[in-house]
Amino acid sequence: MKKLQITSVLIAIFFAIGFSPKVSGQSLTGKQIVEKAYNRDTGDDQTSDLTMTLVNKSGNQRVRKIKQFTKDMGEVEKSIMFFLSPADVKNTSFMSWSYDSDKSDDQWIYLPALKKTKRISSDSKSDYFMGSDFTYDDLGDRKLDDDTHKLLREETIDGKECYVVESVSKDEDYMYTKTITWIIKDNFIGLKKEFYDEDEDLLKILSIKKYEEISGLLIITNSEMKNVQKNHKTSMVLDNVQINTGISVSKFTERMMMRGL
Amino acid sequence: MENFLKKLLKAPWIVLAVTIIISAMFFMQMKKNSRMETDLDKYMPQDHPAFVYSDQAEEWFGINDGIIVAIENKNGIFNTATLDTLKQLTKRLQKMDEIEKADVTSLYTADNIIGTEEGMDVKAFYKRVPKSEEKLNELKHNVENNEMTFGRLVSFDKTVTVIIAEIRDDVFTQEFYEEILALADSYKTDDIKIHVAGRPIVEGTMALLGPADMKKMVPIVLLVITLVLFLMLRSVKSTLLTMAVVFFSTVWAFGLMAAVDIPIYAVSTMIPVMLIAIGVADGIHLYSHLQLFLRKNPDASKKEATLDMLQHMWKPVVMTSITTAVGFISLLTSQVYPIKYFGIFTAFGVLMAMVFSLVLIPAGIMVFGLPKVKKSKNNETNKETNLAYSFAAKVIKRKSVSIFITAAVIILSIIGMQKIWINSSFLDKFEKDSEIVLTDKFINDHFGGTTTLNLILDSEDKKDVFKNPDVLKLVDQMQDQLENDLEVVGNSFTLTDYTKRMNKVMNADKEEFNAIPDNQYLIAQHLAERDSIAQLLAGLDLTSQSSLAKELTAKLAILDSEPQDSLAQKMIAQYLLLYEMSGDPENLNKVVDYDYAKLNVTFQLKSDNSKAINSAIAIIDSYVEDFEKQGISMNYAGSGYKGLIFTDLILEGQIMSLILSLIIVIVLLSLMFKNYKIGLIGAVPITITALISFGTMGFLDIPLNTTTALLSSIAIGIGIDYAVHFIEQYRNNASKSDDMLLVAQKTMAHSGRAISFNAVVVIAGFMVLLFSVFPPNRELGALVSLNMFTSFVGTVTIMLVLLKVSNIYFKNKNK
User: Fold this and answer.
1) CA closest to A128 among chain B residues
2) What's the confidence (pLDDT) of residue A10?
3) What percent of chain B clears pLDDT 90, i.e. is strictly above it?
4) pLDDT tens digit sequence for B583-605
5) Is B522 in the A-facing interface, judged by CB distances under 8 Å?
6) Closest to B581 (Cβ–Cβ): which among A60, A88, A131?
7) What is the DSSP string of A52-112?
8) Does pLDDT of A14 surpass 60?
9) B195 SS3 class
10) Is the peptide bond before A86 cis (omega within 30 degrees of 0)?
């Protein structure tokens, strides 16, 4: 009897000590942090001018200017983009609908020289976005449950206090074995992210150079992805960002792609 | 000099001790510092414009040689087991330290971009290995319908598929090669065979096999030479001391090389070859003289005998060594560093052989005693002397025979030389039935070719030139011509192939669109569309403000504003953008630069032989003017082309240094004998030797390459020895006698004897190389033997005739 009492006391103490942080909810798990980062409010729709600069290892540059519109419609996020330059691809447009469910993205391309809209289907989510160092996944298509998240430590970089979270892919065939993300504690912006390849070697580093408050929301306006293995990088700069202007759903149609801006 | 040598005789033990200690030090250096250089790029002069451009282009486009792993299944490759092996092997190769993951290409890594009615489909051919019959058939269908894959990654008969793993030049090692072979072996089954080929394998194997074979053969060569030397000299002591001279001079040459940290190149393995051929000569002449002296003076003490030997022989030994060394030093004119080093260190070795001959051999005699001279010598001496005397008499009596034969041989050689060709091929250096040649042939039979030639089209930084349909059509036409006209060109690949593929894909995979977009066609389409819109508009009520009317008007305005002459160019630009967005953009970077100002066209050849590469270059060069009109210049890049240029450079340098050393030798001889005619006469045997050597190569279809070209140096180095010894002896004898015939006979009995010993010893030694497993080493053995023989014959026949006819050493006396 006495024994039992002692045991139950011990159990009680064990619970009190061992589980108190979780119970109290003061500290977040890796998964919770990433979830907050993924679900950070960036508005329901966005219009912006994107300047994408590709720099190869010899230092040569390819600069592309794109006008883009995106709209989050809950289950589906639609975006459409029109090339402004270089001149020979002007009015080329690209539309994608990406779904919250497991359904793969729908994509269309309109080539003005061909005067036809074509559907692109691709089985690979690890496709690079427009030949850049960003994949579609890197740009936010990744789903929370695709990885196992673990809070590694807390660290201050660039004067900002961050959670450092490791996310290990559940799919063995995925192009990254893991990523490590520095997420700012205050606002859950991923400030820096390291991508590790199939052999667990560092492949790419994403750095957020600038984020601005626009219409009351924090929007990343300048980011750079560097492929450290190929010494190749892509920078994306957004200008003229407009949030929640109520872009019409009819904007995201094949007809609009053909009509151009 | 003579006095110094005599003084050394008093302290023979010290001489021996010092030699051995220094040799030991050099030996330690060799042990510690010697390293083989197997990277062929290191052999090439880095500042030569062709190499500078090629290196740049390799950097721009990531041009690397690839290891080809071919998976063969006689029953076809479209089955689960073979496809699984392909996947596993691809992954294993990607994980190797020497290989960049992205540089491995196979059906497993490739994208299949296909056109459908409504659009475009980008898929991997497979990720999970297909198991069902249906999936396997689908994969087969996809491969057959993709001209970027069929015939490139999978053979047309569907029994072979390849993995191409590009590696940097400097990562190839024996261990790496063995690792790859072991890896390939581990996947072999009853049905599945795996072959490994590609230029890195060939280059690496050659760089390792040649020297390895030399290592095995040289001891046998030495053994045979020692044996024959013993038969000639009939004395163990003399034989061993002569071989010691060769051994020490080689150790010193390689020791010095290690001490100044110069790696051993493939050509460096020729150094011991040279030193054996040249080093034994000094010893043979010294001992031959000693023997003859002892026969005449059987009771002489070892000191008397040695002194006499030194007194008579130091001069010719020094003269021959210096002329030979200078001949090798003339190789410094070569642009190729390994050859410069070869020249310097061989010259050093030759001079060391001279020092050892004059110091070590006398010291050896003082310490170990005179070689035994057998009793019944008189008979033999007479026999030898009689032979020499009658031979000399015949040569002099029938001088027209020598002159006639020499003339005939020279003419024949010159005819033969016309047929000589240069070959930079590596594969041709292997046995026709060796594994490496058979594998190469196997892959060439099934695919485009294992040898690549890169053509770099350069518009000098004018942007977007390679989006111009006219330019791409020209490139495409050139590719077609090469592929159709030349059996040896199996495939070619560049931006045109991506453009054509995209054009086909975007036009629902219709074969007629497998072409560069045509501006005329696009204008016609453009006008047709304009007409149809205009008709629609005309049918509408013009006053109506309907949105349809507005839209059509806007559309019409856009169409009308578009300049019609750039439709195809825009089409190409948009296709390429689309490819970048959907395929692997890295692929495009391998064929065109960021500004579309430089293009890399890769031709796959079924042979790395210079004739094959040159035949492709000849056709490509016929497009020079067409491209020039577009402001585009042509250059070549890649290892095959560099090999070609490199061989040319070596030969150019060889011919230069051959002429230079001939001139130097003539001048030196003229100075030494204070008579320019002697200089010219002395050069006759070496000239004949070189001519016959090249002539024979022409007739026997032995191409000039780095090894065979260097042989001309041997011709000079050895030929001049014979001539100098002979002339010096002739002069000595002439100073004592007025009887021209007797002088010739005496010279023949003395120098002629030694020269024949020398020739027999070295020929016997080098004949051993005929049993080598490495064909270039066999050619080397045969040609060295031939050179020794012609030098010997030339010296004792035509040169003797010329000496007599010129009358040099008798003229003054007669007056």
Assistant:
1) B581
2) 53
3) 27
4) 777 788 889 998 899 999 999 99
5) yes
6) A131
7) EEEE-TT--EEEEEEEEEEEE-SSEEEEEEEEEESGGGTT-EEEEEEESSSPPPEEEEEET
8) no
9) strand
10) yes
- Exposed, middle or buried, B798 (CB in 10 Å: 0-12/13-18/19+)? buried
Dig out the tokens for A19 from the structure: 């589980």
CA distance B163 to B68: 6
| CA distance, residue B631 to nearest chain A CA (Å) | 21
User: CA of B426, closest CA in chain A: separation in Å?
Assistant: 32
pLDDT digits (tens, 9 = 90+) for B395-441: 888 888 889 999 999 999 999 988 888 777 888 888 888 888 899 89
Q: Do the chains contact at A88 and B467, CB–CB below 8 Å? A: yes
Q: Which one, of B438, B437, B339, B336, lies nearest residue B642 by Cα?
A: B336
Query: Looking at chain B, which residue has its C-alpha nearest residue A60?
Result: B594
Where does the pLDDT of residue B766 fall: very low under 50, low under 70, confident under 90, or very high at 90 and above?
confident
> pLDDT confidence of A5, banded at 50, 70, 90?
low
pLDDT at position B380 = 65
Pick from B101, B585, B593: which is nearest to A60 by CB? B593
User: Which tens digit of pLDDT belongs to each residue from B284-301?
Assistant: 889 988 888 888 888 888
Q: Which residues contact A176 (CB under 8 A, 6 or more apart)?
A: A169, A195, A196, A197, A198, A203
A124-150: string of b/e by CB count within 10 Å (b at 16+)? bbebbbbbbbbbbbbeebbeeeebebb
Q: Are the beta carbons of B506 and A118 separated by less than 8 Å?
A: yes
Cite the beta strand spans of chain A per DSSP E.
45-55, 61-72, 76-85, 93-99, 106-111, 116-122, 147-157, 160-169, 178-184, 190-196, 202-214, 217-227, 232-243
**Averaged confidence pLDDT in chain B:** 86
pLDDT number for residue B545: 65
Residues of A in contact with B566 (CB under 8 A): 88
Q: How far apart are CA B26 and CA B252, in angstroms?
A: 6
Burial grade of B752 (CB within 10 A; 0-12, 13-18, 19 or more): buried
Contacts of B314 (CB under 8 A, 6+ apart): B1, B2, B5, B358
CATH superfamily of A30-259: Lipoprotein localisation LolA/LolB/LppX (2.50.20.10)
Q: Quick one: tokens of B392?
A: 């000399």
8 A C-beta contact, residue B133 and residue B141: no
Residue with token string 């289950």: A75
Q: A215-244, pLDDT tens digit by residue?
A: 888 899 999 999 998 888 999 999 999 999
Give yes or no for B60 touching A (CB within 8 A).
yes
Q: Is B96 on the interface with A (CB under 8 A)?
A: no
Residues of A in contact with B578 (CB under 8 A): 109, 111
Task: Please tell me the pTM assigned to this model.
Answer: 0.81
Partners of B582 on chain A (C-beta within 8 Å) are 120, 122, 127
Check B120 against A119: CB less than 8 A apart: yes
3-class secondary-structure state, position B558:
helix
* Mutation choice for A interface testing from B553, B570, B589 by most A CBs within 10 A: B570
Predicted ipTM?
0.84
Q: Which domains does chain B have, with CATH numbers?
A: 1-33+235-369 (1.20.1640.10), 64-197 (3.30.70.1440), 445-638 (no CATH)
Q: List CB contacts of B457: < 8 A, sequence separation 6 or more.
A: B466, B475, B598, B599, B601, B627, B632, B633, B634
> Chain A neighbours among B 125-144 (CB < 8 Å)?
127
The answer to whether the Cα torsion of A4, A6, A9, A14 is positive or negative is negative
A124 vs B491, more confident = B491
DSSP string, B577-634: HHHHHHS-HHHHHTTB-TTS-EEEEEEEES---HHHHHHHHHHHHTTHHHHHHTT-EE
